[in-house]
Design a protein that fits this description.
This protein is α+β, with helices and mostly antiparallel strands and about 400 residues long. The protein is about 30% helix and about 30% strand. It has eleven helices and 21 strands. The strands form seven sheets. It has a five-stranded mixed sheet with strand order 11-6-1-13-12. The protein has a four-stranded antiparallel sheet with strand order 15-16-14-17, covered by helices on one side. Strands 20-19-18-21 form a four-stranded antiparallel sheet. The two termini are about 15 Å apart.
């Protein structure tokens, strides 16, 4: 399922959590899961409120006493020891990691020495982990966000009075599309910025989808200029005839003086950094020297990390970048019942309505090695089986749905 963050009034942690609960996550289920965190002295309340004429869900974290300041190491240890799925842990750590990196830059200190006050409080932990839990529970596999509106003015916090947008918020939102709203208020909080920056794979208008439901999460106050809510719109991109579109970043550099053995290692590291695709092209460079054109496809949020990897792993002195629009066939992760057992695969929907089931390469390779079979034989057999049999959708709880 695709989710679109419609951030016409900005985004905060509690706004996102409220919108996800409004989409259908039972508050009792969320409370039960959050009780597994090693946190004490908080209660989770949910209610329907009105913001500018719109009814929205307001989720509040009520603490029994003052929350302690926590370092990034404290938060990382807390999440590592919590009974959470790997995906929820990863999403939560990435969001907190972005905040820690931003705070370290703003205050000119090492990331491990960053101490969170407002962000490290119980309510922010609940907002971040709770949002990750809700996204997993709803089966949301892709997130696209609108550009973010930024407010102006000043805000008081543990570091004193700061201008809006808060310096940490600006640091987190580097490479994220933003615009000035003209509203004298904080519209995007550091927690909200970290959540959208770590969860959204692209930014832009509402993608083509078959709409299924929408949820509204309320902010803490009313705004005169617009309803202070975050709207999350969910839909299915699998309808016949629809092709999704988004914008990606293309990074490229030409190299003519590097040991060719390094390229394989570089490709592995780039994919680990979040690259969508990597390829090499033979080229002839100045003085007619043979070289290699390195080209990388990535999301905007991963651009800086991947660029740094190219500089650290190659001999290049520069990396070019440009945006590229692309069209994407809708697809979803499934598990297929095969003669080799239950295996992951991709279900791809063509623009003419045709459905293709594609086995995952790594699964084919593992079976070929374990059973000492030719890889092409395993792949061809699975393609035939998938063409004639149903598949099971992967659910967030690890169980399987009925065959389709």
């Amino acid at each position: 399922m695709l989710a679109y963050f419609d951030c016409f009034a900005g985004i905060s942690g509690d706004m996102l959590l409220g919108a996800l609960v409004d989409l259908g996550v039972p508050l009792a289920w969320l409370k039960q899961r959050l009780d597994q965190l090693p946190l004490e002295g908080f209660r989770l309340n949910g209610e329907t409120v009105h913001r500018g004429g719109l009814a929205a869900c307001k989720v509040s974290v009520v603490c029994d006493g003052p929350a302690p300041a926590r370092s990034f190491t404290d938060i990382r240890n807390l999440l590592d020891n919590a009974e959470l799925s790997a995906q929820v842990q990863q999403s939560s750590l990435e969001a907190f990691g972005r905040i820690a990196e931003a705070e370290a830059r703003v205050h000119r200190c090492e990331i491990e020495k960053v101490h969170f006050h407002e962000v490290g409080a119980v309510d922010a932990l609940v907002d971040i982990v709770g949002s990750a839990l809700c996204i997993e529970h709803l089966g949301i596999s892709r997130i696209v966000s609108s550009p973010l509106p930024l407010g102006s003015g000043f805000v008081s916090c543990a570091h004193g009075t700061l201008p809006l947008p808060a310096p940490a918020t600006l640091a987190i939102l580097e490479n994220v599309p933003v615009y000035g709203s003209g509203v004298s208020a904080e519209l995007v909080t550091p927690t909200g910025a970290a959540l959208v920056a770590s969860l959204a794979e692209s930014y832009g208008p509402l993608p083509a989808m078959a709409l299924s439901k929408s949820g509204y999460g309320a902010g803490a106050r009313d705004l005169e200029a617009r309803p202070n809510v975050l709207r999350v719109i969910c839909g299915d991109v699998r309808r016949a005839g629809t092709v999704d579109t988004d914008t990606v970043i293309v990074l490229e550099s030409c190299v003519d003086d590097m040991n060719p053995e390094i390229y394989g290692h570089l490709m592995e590291r780039l994919f680990a950094d979040g690259a969508l695709d990597v390829w090499w092209v033979p080229v002839y460079m100045k003085k007619n020297r043979p070289g290699t054109l390195i080209q990388i496809l990535c999301r905007r949020a991963d651009e800086d990390r991947i660029t740094a990897r190219v500089f650290s792993e190659t001999t290049t002195l520069g990396v070019r970048r440009h945006e590229a629009g692309r069209s994407i066939l809708p697809r979803m992760a499934v598990k297929a019942a095969t003669s080799f057992g239950l295996l992951p695969a991709k279900r791809v929907y063509g623009p003419d309505g045709a459905v293709t089931l594609v086995p995952e390469y790594e699964s084919c390779r593992r079976i070929a090695v374990e059973r000492d079979l030719p890889l092409k034989q395993v792949y061809q057999q699975l393609v035939c089986e998938l063409a004639n049999d149903g598949v099971r959708k992967i659910r967030s709880d690890g169980n399987e749905d009925e065959k389709s």
